[in-house]
């Protein structure tokens, strides 16, 4: 989840999976693989299983008092059913994400439920919608199946009780995750809708993030006010769990807002706007000839001089400071390769690149160099300084 960031979520609230670059795998035990990714049981899951077993045991006791200590076995069986449903929720996300061209990196079962992480970047609003909606839909289908099985039982038995609990818990997980705010799945659906309408994914992320903050406040308000509407005081355990859930949702929403703003900044970057113009001289030209070429272009004092091979391929960029230190009488016989810095082979970027595609290209081909050549239709038109790209990113953030 996704950068894209890793997110964990409550058992009743699996956040939308946000893509993340090369996320680290969660600590825990790998128990299998889904969509080519490891399924990890984290140590925190055991704490969640213990707490949920204790919380569910009184309900089992009231429904089946004859079980004695066996109520804890039944309660733990319910916990396994619940986390099994969470796993199917995450597996649905993973399988659809892979089908939409993403690389799934892990499925983890955690203290708060589970998360799925993938990389690759969603290309279209529909991709975000379908990856997000399939999780809650899986839970609602499970809820319907458990409910039908419960209705078919002639008497109330322990298995019947488990069917009833599984139906209600899956229904709650499915409906809760459809609430329209990040980091919930419903938030990713809202993000995709705004993205589809405006054509701006960053705007969709910011809108869904603010909606997520509204959901976070609503969860806490509901936990406190609902009991009063029923004529009773709110329970301390319910308020504490709701406060933790609200804090988690608020934090996830804030991260989504920051991510959306960064995405908007990235979307506004382009090679054309950041590159400086350049003129070309052939390999073997003199420093004097390069100086004259730069001064006669009319492109301004910031014009760079790029040395090209016989086939027009950019080979190096002239260091203006080094060229300026060459005495005038020596400049007419000193070749430009003496004052030029070689480009990384294959590092040229197209002048039409922008946004994430530009950053991906630079990351893949720049080889750590500061300067890369810019081409347009195979012709060298400029030089891009990667420190200018970094400044633009920092300024936007």
From TrEMBL:
Limits of the Peptidase M50 domain: 162-206
Subcellular compartments: Membrane
Classification via InterPro entries: Peptidase_M50
Main location: membrane
Any single GO CC term annotated in Swiss-Prot or TrEMBL for this entry: membrane
Location of region: Disordered: 1-24
One MF annotation (Gene Ontology) recorded for this entry: metallopeptidase activity
GO terms classed as biological process: proteolysis
Keywords: Hydrolase, Membrane, Metal-binding, Metalloprotease, Protease, Transmembrane, Transmembrane helix, Zinc
Composition-biased stretches (Low complexity): 9-24
Membrane-traversing stretches: 34-57, 69-88, 129-149, 161-179, 210-229, 235-258
Swiss-Prot/TrEMBL cofactor(s): Zn(2+)
Keyword Zinc: yes
Keyword Zinc part of the UniProt annotation: yes
Pfam family, one: Peptidase_M50
Membrane topology category: Multi-pass membrane protein
Sequence similarity: Belongs to the peptidase M50B family.
Name by which UniProt lists this protein: Site-2 protease family protein
